[in-house]
């Protein structure tokens, strides 16, 4: 009976739960799904992390390459994020060039990196105007069950924490770079931005960490990104039902709590790896 | 979205009118519609209104490596973008036949006629040259896009100023407009394309066809010419045969039209120059027609700021503050961490009680399936009846070392979710 | 706490012209200072089968940059404009049909996304589409010393520490869309929202005036 009700009237089905202040999967309205983090999942990458939030699974691999800095910013390296939503992760995506959602997610991640200054691009410069690092951050969704932006930000942050760059010296005589793979050092992470996504049901009920089904039934979505100093790096609300300043403040406060939780998680997991070595 | 088709009745009416030497908008056979040329705030931005047809051209430039075959020449790039704004028939990102035709004609008109001195665009031979890019966007298609685009492109090129560069040894520095005045392109002549539409297998001829007339025409002749009466390109399309005299007559008309239009462009350029010199504003806000009732403009206005700060603090204080403490994460293994006790994923990473329960519900389903399968099997000669679902699952997943129960629950998410609901009831 | 000096908080002169193109069903150009955007709307019209939605109209938004082809940045702006329009339009009145909104950037001198939203709203009004509310776009920049600038120019945007664009609805002055760049404190955000709500009054007033002027002679 319940299954039939769910298929025939998905919105009514969700409403009947929301009326009781809970959700079909048993969570409270402001409760996240269990977040599992594994770092160093890909050995061939310079840094990597796998994040699971409920069923949503995102993997992030970081590849560092040497390149020439751009003419406009000779003292800076650059970071190129890319979010891939392959057909593998959900039937809603088709093979071929990236769709609108993937492009919007890539742009969002790029904005978060730039706004939060998670990494100072000056740190990536090796030889001013001649040589710098490019960090290709490939973020791939393996299982799509909503809220990929939060998972992608956590995966990216954990992967950056995990990244070790080899030491590079520029040979004075031949002016060619020499890479010393034996000696690696970690990236300096300045900030820890963490995203928290919300969905609005029927223009009024606010729920956190939506699943794919909740996302598709909701009337609005928004993502708040905060860092450890309680500064906001992004308040991304592409549209949907309107919200008052008070309601947004509620979201921001929930996001602050989430940021502490995730930073602690990343901190602990990174620590467990270094002690295990 | 498709264009609205033209009805037979309209078509007949149009042709009949043309046969009687009448045009819908009251023009004579050789008349052009009103041409309006305006320039934007940027250098190299030009709007052309040809009656209702509207296009905008923008010239931009950047330093690139030259082509190997021509190391000391700058690169010209033209692009006419048939934006869906101009007509519902135009699609985004699709190379239509019309777009290829227009782009080709513009290239022949402006690049192949060598009207721009590309050698002056060279900065360091073989290393760095300017690439000048002309983007023409169509805003409204009311016929004769080609003429409008060619006027817009050449006017924009004449209006454009590229930044000055300085070379010191190997270093190339690009000066901003504040440091050094930008430099105009050197343009030898201004080729302009003039379109002629032919009807009834070439019996009737119209200059500057509008969109309706373009739909019923049999053929089109485009002549690009400069004011020195030098023909830069001729293109006939639509598959009509033209007599030598007809082409000659068209080229004579073209020469008159070209000199008129060239004068108009020069006048517009002159007006813009004097306006800029006088320090007057020449932006879009100025070009907005004031007299129309569909247009309205306001002046700069202050925003009241009295209680903004108080309101912001008010909202922040009223909201429930975030809890100071965060939940401690669990570390099942080095390199793996977990936080939160909300919904677990259904991957079967952790074996907790709930999943055990779920799989018992699962078993029922499997059993039912199995009964079905067993019924099927009895029809076969050799029967290998399995007595437990464990074996069944093992056969399905011969390489899994996990407990079959678990494999069952993780293999079918939907089933697990459904069974959970059943338990709740 | 930083107090905001009133001098910096102003909107540049802005203007709008509607029904300026003959082909689209609705068109408008919106000018804010030197920033200018032209918008055209087609629809409701027939829809491609692959994009058909059974209970409402499909809205497509295209943003055409002035130079070059649209890229990832335009895609994300398109998403913002589209979802804002979807929130305001009563799309369920036109099931199984398509609406196309094309925005052509004519000049970018700051507050581009805000200007796009204003042009879009004026064009939708001109097309006579039913909407549950109007919306407007307001951009705010926060300078290095913590001042708030509304409707910043490109130069002010470049020097600013953070940039925010909000879409405000006309019924309750709430936030439909928010897009931010740079980092800022919660207090700054709430201030910017409050300022944008104030600024939106001016723009809605302008909408009203322009519509009144437009229909002044039809009676």
TrEMBL record, chain A:
GO terms for molecular function: mRNA 3'-UTR AU-rich region binding. It holds the Pfam family RNase_PH. This is Exosome complex component RRP43. CDD domains: RNase_PH_RRP43. One of its GO terms (cellular component) is cytoplasmic exosome (RNase complex). It comes from Kryptolebias marmoratus (Mangrove killifish). Residues 31-166, 193-257 form the Exoribonuclease phosphorolytic domain. It comes from the Eukaryota. Keywords: Acetylation, Cytoplasm, Exosome, Nucleus, RNA-binding, rRNA processing. It is found in: Cytoplasm; Nucleus, Nucleolus. InterPro entries: ExoRNase_PH_dom1, ExoRNase_PH_dom2, ExoRNase_PH_dom2_sf, Exosome_comp_Rrp42_subfam, PNPase/RNase_PH_dom_sf, Ribosomal_Su5_D2-typ_SF, Rrp43. The lineage of its organism: Eukaryota, Metazoa, Chordata, Craniata, Vertebrata. Belongs to the RNase PH family. GO terms for biological process: exonucleolytic trimming to generate mature 3'-end of 5.8S rRNA from tricistronic rRNA transcript (SSU-rRNA, 5.8S rRNA, LSU-rRNA); nuclear mRNA surveillance; nuclear polyadenylation-dependent rRNA catabolic process; rRNA catabolic process; TRAMP-dependent tRNA surveillance pathway; U1 snRNA 3'-end processing; U4 snRNA 3'-end processing; U5 snRNA 3'-end processing.
TrEMBL record, chain B:
GO terms for biological process: exonucleolytic trimming to generate mature 3'-end of 5.8S rRNA from tricistronic rRNA transcript (SSU-rRNA, 5.8S rRNA, LSU-rRNA); nuclear mRNA surveillance; nuclear polyadenylation-dependent rRNA catabolic process; rRNA catabolic process; TRAMP-dependent tRNA surveillance pathway; U1 snRNA 3'-end processing; U4 snRNA 3'-end processing; U5 snRNA 3'-end processing. Residues 32-163, 189-255 form the Exoribonuclease phosphorolytic domain. It is found in: Cytoplasm; Nucleus, Nucleolus. Its main location: cytoplasm. It holds the Pfam family RNase_PH_C. The keyword Cytoplasm applies. The keyword Endoplasmic reticulum does not apply. It comes from the Eukaryota. Residues 349-425 are annotated as: Disordered. Residues 349-368 have a biased composition (Acidic residues). One of its GO terms (molecular function) is mRNA 3'-UTR AU-rich region binding. Keywords: Cytoplasm, Exosome, Nucleus, RNA-binding, rRNA processing. Residues 369-379 have a biased composition (Basic and acidic residues). Belongs to the RNase PH family. This is Exosome complex component RRP45. It comes from Kryptolebias marmoratus.
Automatic annotation (TrEMBL), chain C:
Gene3D superfamilies: GHMP Kinase, N-terminal domain. GO terms for biological process: nuclear mRNA surveillance; poly(A)-dependent snoRNA 3'-end processing; rRNA catabolic process; rRNA processing; U4 snRNA 3'-end processing. It is found in: Cytoplasm; Nucleus, Nucleolus. CDD domains: RNase_PH_RRP46. Residues 11-129, 134-198 form the Exoribonuclease phosphorolytic domain. InterPro entries: ExoRNase_PH_dom1 (IPR001247), ExoRNase_PH_dom2 (IPR015847), ExoRNase_PH_dom2_sf (IPR036345), PNPase/RNase_PH_dom_sf (IPR027408), Ribosomal_Su5_D2-typ_SF (IPR020568), RNase_PH (IPR050080). GO terms for cellular component: cytoplasmic exosome (RNase complex); nuclear exosome (RNase complex); nucleolus. Keywords: Cytoplasm, DNA-binding, Exosome, Nucleus, Phosphoprotein, rRNA processing. Its main location: cytoplasm. GO terms for molecular function: DNA binding; RNA binding. Homodimer. Component of the RNA exosome core complex (Exo-9), composed of EXOSC1, EXOSC2, EXOSC3, EXOSC4, EXOSC5, EXOSC6, EXOSC7, EXOSC8 and EXOSC9; within the complex interacts with EXOSC3, EXOSC8, and EXOSC9. The catalytically inactive RNA exosome core complex (Exo-9) associates with the catalytic subunit EXOSC10/RRP6. Exo-9 may associate with DIS3 to form the nucleolar exosome complex, or DIS3L to form the cytoplasmic exosome complex. Belongs to the RNase PH family. PANTHER family: EXOSOME COMPLEX COMPONENT, EXOSOME COMPLEX COMPONENT RRP46. This is Exosome complex component RRP46. It comes from Kryptolebias marmoratus.
